[in-house]
Amino acid sequence: MPRIDIDAAPERNGTAYPPPFDAPCRDRRRRRLGNAVGLTQFGVNRLVLAPGCWSSQRHWHTAEDEFVWVVSGEVVLIENEGEVVLKAGDCAGFPKGVANGHQLVNRSAEPAVILEVGGRNPEQDAVDYPDIDLMIAGDGDTAYRHKDGTPYETPSGRVK
Fold it and tell me: What is the dihedral of CA 72, 78, 79, 83, to 10 degrees?
């Protein structure tokens, strides 16, 4: 049945960013709605940002489009051109290959709920994080790396 039980959809909480870049994103909560019904060409997530939480580090993709719609609450969209408040009903999109680093930050006192839609080309997609020493190289490499190409290591010494 194509109807999605949101509470039963696969959940992915927190972040895989290496320290210290993980800290502002630790309280994000995602329900992977597209995965719940077997979508393969694009992903759809219900993202909940607690007060003070970030959706991501500021970034842009080479091979994946992104679209966000604020379902409830409000967030601040931070991108190259500055900041703008997005409230319930507002949406924004980010075409692949456009070097416009972007992120959502919940600066309000209430949780914000966002619907995220994006491509599923992780093996082809490179990701640039313009404000920090972080990147994903693409071409089949989906690991977080320093901008000089060396991989980040986890506290246990394993490469992410």
Answer: 100
